[in-house]
Amino acid sequence: MSKLHFKRRSWYEFRDKLTSFLFILPAVTIFAVFYIYPFFETFNLSLRAWNGINLSRPFVGVQNFSDILSLTASSPAAGASWWQAILHWLKALLTGGLSFNADSVWWQSVWHAFYITLVALIFQNALAFMLAMACDRDIRGKNFYRLIFFIPPVLSEVVVGLVWKWILEGGMQNGQHYGVLNYFLNTVGLQHLVNDWLSDPKTALTCIAVVHSWKGFGWGFVMFLAGLQTIDRELYEAAKVDGAGSWRMFWNMTVPMMLPVIVVVVILTILGSMQAFVLVLSMTDGGPGYHTEVPVTIILRAMTRTKEYGYACAMGVTFGAVLIAMSVALKKMESRMKKV
Amino acid sequence: MNNRCLTSLLLCFAVLFSGCSSAPKEPNTITVWHWMTDRHDALVKLAEQYRLETGITVNFQLFAPSDIYSQKVIAAAQARILPDIFGVLDKKSVFADFIKSGFVANLKPVFDENNGEWEKSLFEKALESSRFSADNSYGVAEGIYAVPLDVTNIQMVYNKKFLEKAGVANPPETFEEFLKASEALNKIGVAPFVSGWAELWLVDCFALNYAFNIMGMDKIMATYRGDVPYTDPDWIKVFEIFKIMADNNILASGVVTKSNKLAEQDFALERAAFAFNGSWCVNVYKGMNPDLEYGVMFPPKISDAYPLMIWGGAGGSFVVNETSPLKDKAILFLKWLTSKEQQVVLSEETRNLPSNRNALAELPKELAEFGLGMDEVTHSAFWPLEEDALVKEKFTKGLQSIMIGERTPQEVAEDVQTVKARQMERAIRRAQ
Description:
The complex is a heterodimer. Chain A is an all-alpha fold. Chain A is 70% helix and 2% strand. In chain A, the strands form two sheets. In chain A, strands 1-2 form a two-stranded antiparallel ribbon. Chain B contains 17 helices and 14 strands. In chain B, strands 7, 8, 9, 10, 11, 13 and 14 form a seven-stranded mixed β-sheet that branches. In chain B, strands 3-12-6 form a three-stranded antiparallel β-sheet, covered by helices on one side. Classes of the chains: A mainly alpha, B alpha+beta. The interface between A and B is large, with 49 and 52 residues.
């Protein structure tokens, strides 16, 4: 092969690569500008004390993170550089110079998010799976049900929150309850169950969790239904011929074959529920007291009310780490279950 | 083919990036960003009048609700794309940060012109929140940095029909009378008192009214400095007011998770006899129930030790962008907007108290009653110190806990003091 031919081939290869690169460049640019840069900027801000307006953003090291973890230790020496500050905190960590203060609204809010997630995982996904199984069979009007079940997820979360707030309202006018649920309970003779649902600390968070599940089950329903429809019907027929009952077919065939879909739905439910906040804002605004605060409302408040952007970013980073850890753990669990 | 692809891609990029540049600025168009939904139509109408008079277009852009607006302004400040006129809806320290960052023009030289004619035409308390004295603790140069569009104050309103039905001759002036009136209202099956206390600022306003009444300004400031703890008996008395109200069934159902909008709805639809609300409610109630008969009253005092102060000051204020090429034109427009004729129009259209004292003459009765309270108003922007935001949050959330019977006043006082101590320690740590 001549030298000229080799050079020309290299040029063509380079040009092909360049063209390919240019084709993916818009996507890479958008990803870098809207995902990668904000991620690093958030992490950068989490190491600073900033009120969102000042031009200066003093570096405070891991101070914001230690405040979130409610860890207290002596401060690094005045004028210490960032690496000296990190060394100081590492030393404190290793020598037991840190103490843990359990009184933290942040961790209470994380627990609330876990609670909402738990209710969603059990109630929302079980309901979605059952309804998907029902619609997967040849029942009359199944298309109508599919449409109905998918209405809640497409409604605005604020509207859903306000409608449910009206349903759960606890007040009275002219001796009549004007909250729909209380009016109903009163009418059917269950006066003892009448309650101020959203202002009662015992019921407020559960109400939000139930409404969140009601709003979200449609997504799971659609995904489960799509998964169920990929299972070959002949397998069930063969199992029936072999004498398998409904329960056995469900447990030994449907569940294993639906496992990848279940894991995806579970991960999406966890990520969606842990980050739920619009319903909280429209139904209770985090109250009464701190009883319905979730991490995102705390982060929002740190930004909008107390103007602690650095602290808010540190909370965002911590919360993001928790979510990533949970997703990774679930994926690992899925791999192990597949092996079993 | 490949060359054509490359050319198309490069063209796409050129179009994409050219779209990122800012729009060219119209030389005679002043852009105003605001959040006041109820005043938007009136402002647009006045802007049209201004265009006919001067040939200058004023483009009012509405961004509501107010917290979203605040975020937009902060984001625009970070990106250096603030409009010619905007508002800063935040505490004084944040306002000071905007000024120190060079985003806000000092209007004092303009206010001083013609022997201070413009300044004298406006309510003193309306200018107070945007005034920085020579020795202010915020490190801002002496001046006046905002123009108040209207003024506001927060008092209580009462339903005349319910009080009459309950046999209460006059609106209560003391807290004891308020308790008796509430008892009578409960007997006739009317919820005595409603307020949107899911909104923490509103419950804070109510509590601080009584803090002023019980201990006076100096002790409140001493608390903010850290010299007096929240566990002081006077603060406990403030917390106890909420327990008394909860124990005596005075509060309407769900008051701690009710937004002010819903509380306004409850009062307007005659579901409660008393409400704690600002002068803007006159417009809101008129829209919800034009036949509502109500009066305005001071929150009933609980002590004779100090005067009960109410919250108030500038309702909506506008600042001029220091870096705007239309700075002078923007100032002239604001001067025109706050002159008597325009203030009368605004007041008639929006039922808000005018910031120009000369425009007070033709006000609706309820609004005039709110106007009488303007001499007793106070605002954190007038004070030399501000309480830490997290302490404020714990304070107001604690009040919610008392109202739902979860915590006692003593426990809440201790909780708030713990946060206060932690925040002071944190401030010292950060200052090192």
